[in-house]
Design a protein that fits this description.
Penicillin-binding protein 2a (Domain 2); five-stranded mixed sheet; alpha+beta; five-stranded antiparallel sheet; Beta-lactamase; disordered C terminus
Length: about 625
């Protein structure tokens, strides 16, 4: 009896010891776990907890506007919405995808692909799944906030550009930042940011972009907001004022409608670009939202090259406009007597090869002196000058007048053109320059190429006595570079007299004379292919001659210089000169109008009510004809 009692007394004590040790071990495990959670991994779990309860929605800063020289808006913004998808709760997200796909009209495969591509980004960062929400999309998101907390609306400010490609290549466009731009930005950009990709949008992106803000809120376990914490307001981008005159730009755009080419108008006294365009152009509004890949591919493969800014990137033979360089080199070098006369029967032989004048087969220029050579654009005269000067002397004056190197305009992608020389030929082709090649270069053919902007600056330099200012589109452009290539007053007088005669003395652009305005210039007709090939293929549009004209006013110390290129336009005096004429006339119409407004403000009665710029343009006058043909060159 006693033994049984002893065993019964010892049994609970053993169990108690086991229970005690078990409890101690469990407490130790709990303590270790708490220590690990609260000490070793405290930061990690605190961050996860913070992300689970606080949601951050960006507030996108609107880009700065672009204004013309008088403060009129060229590029603005318009409010819009993007749709974000929140990835805080992965299970909720997966359950919601089919309903999101159906409600927003986005294929489920496309949604899944977008989410897969964003895996590398933090889960608390929302992802844009529809950049441009329609009214129906907005209504869907608002009406399903309770059952689809993974969707959120993001207010954005879309770029609103002028219609019909107005000034498109100069303005440029915006787009989503690329991985390469992200890497170069050193943290300034985030994935999904919209930045300038070309033109002024790219050149002045830092000024235009602004700084995004942030909206932070507490959400519950279902992802629904319960409290707003704080808002960091966005800082809008700063506007930029351009040197462009909207009225002159509109005249240029209207005259170039349906044509291929470019127009540049500058104030040579300040370097202000008054108008700039390239046709055909693209519609920058297509880039305000993500451009479809197929549309982007079409723009890049379009044979009309709408993405090419011809004003600063079209490197083409300048044709007879280059004769102003040859004429300047002749007088300044004094290698040839300025009294030299040349007989032009319509052709001449140099180095055993016949070279034709543009009047070949129609008439001859007869005896030609320096003045008549410019007015009538006699090729034979300038062939002879080029032969006597040589390529290096021509290159010296061409380079001094701005050809063969960039102007420094504040636009990305400017091309330098080409002015050949003995050294260039040896370096590039490892051969000597052949004298016969100089004959073609002397009239702006052969290896020489230039952009419309370079030709505008070259003519401005000659008419201004060798001084030209760095062209720019930003009105308060800091410290524009001023270059000076010495040209004697006697040379300036003789060359500008010739360009005055081109327009006002029955020259190759006689049909664009302006009453009471000293409108001067030089036309050019540049061959795309040689004479022999042109005889066989010249009727095809792609082989037609390019039409050039560079005009300015007044005759000395010009206020405005306009360069016009019409690709495939034929004669420069017929296709390009009237466009330059219209722009110069619009400039003077505005100048007269402003003068009358000032007179009225002082209390005097104006003599007549000024007409609007567009209405003031006179109809184009047919070119005057002399001899057997129309002197258009």
């Amino acid at each position: 009896m006693t033994s049984f009692i002893g065993n019964d007394e010892r049994l609970p004590q053993g169990r108690l010891i086991i229970l005690t040790y078990t409890s101690v071990v469990m407490i130790l495990l709990l303590l270790v776990g708490f220590w690990k959670l609260q000490v070793v991994q405290s930061g990690h779990y605190a961050e996860l907890a913070e992300r689970n309860r606080i949601r951050s929605i960006p507030i996108i800063a609107p880009r700065g506007r672009m204004l013309d020289r008088e403060g009129r808006v060229i590029v603005d913004n318009c409010p819009s919405f993007s749709i974000l998808i929140l990835r805080d709760d992965q299970k909720l997200l997966e359950r919601s995808l089919p309903q999101v796909s159906e409600g927003l009209g986005i294929p489920i495969d496309e949604l899944t692909k977008t989410l897969e591509e964003s895996r590398a980004q933090p889960k608390f960062q929302p992802i844009v799944i529809k950049p441009e929400a329609t009214d129906a999309d907005i209504a869907f998101v608002e009406s399903h906030r309770a059952d689809l907390p993974v969707l959120e609306l993001l207010m954005v400010h879309r770029r609103r550009y002028p219609q019909d490609g107005f000034m498109a290549n100069a303005i440029g466009y915006v787009g989503e930042v690329t991985p390469e731009q992200l890497e170069r930005s050193e943290g300034r950009y985030r994935p999904g940011d919209i930045v300038g990709k070309s033109g002024l949008e790219r050149e002045y992106n830092e000024t235009l972009q602004g700084t995004d803000g942030m909206r932070r809120m507490i959400v519950n376990s279902l992802g629904r907001p319960v409290k707003t914490l704080d808002n960091l307001e966005a800082t809008p981008g700063k506007p930029i004022q351009l040197t462009v005159d909207y009225d002159l730009q509109a005249v240029a755009e209207g005259d170039m409608a349906g044509k291929r080419g470019a127009v540049v108008a500058i104030d040579p006294r300040t370097g202000d670009v008054l108008a700039i365009l390239s046709h055909p152009a693209f519609d920058p509004n297509d880039f305000a939202v993500r451009i479809p890949p197929e549309e982007w591919a079409h723009l890049n493969t379009d044979p009309a090259t709408p993405l090419l800014n011809r004003a600063i990137q079209a490197q083409l033979a300048p044709g007879s406009v280059f004769k102003i360089v040859t004429a300047t080199a002749m007088l300044e070098s004094k290698a040839i007597p300025e009294t030299m006369n040349v007989f032009c029967p319509g052709y001449a032989t140099f180095y055993g090869r016949m070279f034709k004048c543009w009047v070949y087969g129609k008439k001859s220029h007869g005896v030609v002196d320096f003045h008549k050579a410019i007015v009538q654009s006699c090729d034979i005269f300038f062939y002879t000058v080029g032969q006597r000067l040589g390529i290096d002397r021509l290159a010296y004056y061409a380079n001094g007048l701005g050809l063969g190197h960039k102007t420094g305009i504040d636009l990305p992608g400017e091309e330098s053109g080409l002015m050949p020389s003995e050294e260039w030929t040896q370096r590039v082709f490892h051969r000597r320059w052949y004298p016969g090649e100089t004959i073609s270069v002397a009239i702006g053919q052969g290896a020489v190429t230039a952009t419309p902007l370079q030709l505008a600056q070259m003519i401005a330099a000659v008419a201004s006595g060798g001084t030209f200012v760095q062209p720019h589109l930003l009105k308060n452009f800091p410290n524009p570079r001023v270059d000076h290539f010495p040209i004697s007053d006697a040379t300036v007088e003789k060359v500008t007299e010739g360009m005055y005669g081109v327009v006002n003395e029955g020259g190759t652009a006689a049909g664009v004379r302006l009453q009471n305005i000293e409108f001067c210039g030089k036309s050019g007709t540049a061959q795309v292919i040689g004479y022999n090939t042109r005889d066989r293929l010249g009727k095809q549009q792609q082989f037609k001659d390019n039409a050039w004209f560079v005009g300015y006013a007044p005759r000395r110390n010009p206020e405005i210089v306009v360069a016009v290129l019409v690709q495939g336009g034929g004669h420069g005096g017929e296709a390009a000169a009237p466009i330059a004429r219209d722009i110069v006339k619009a400039y003077y119409d505005k100048k007269v109008s402003r003068g009358q407004e000032q007179t009225t403000a002082l209390g005097a009665r104006p003599e007549a009510t000024p007409k609007p710029v567009a209405a003031a343009l006179t109809p184009r006058v047919p070119a005057q004809q002399t001899g057997e043909g129309t002197p258009q060159r």
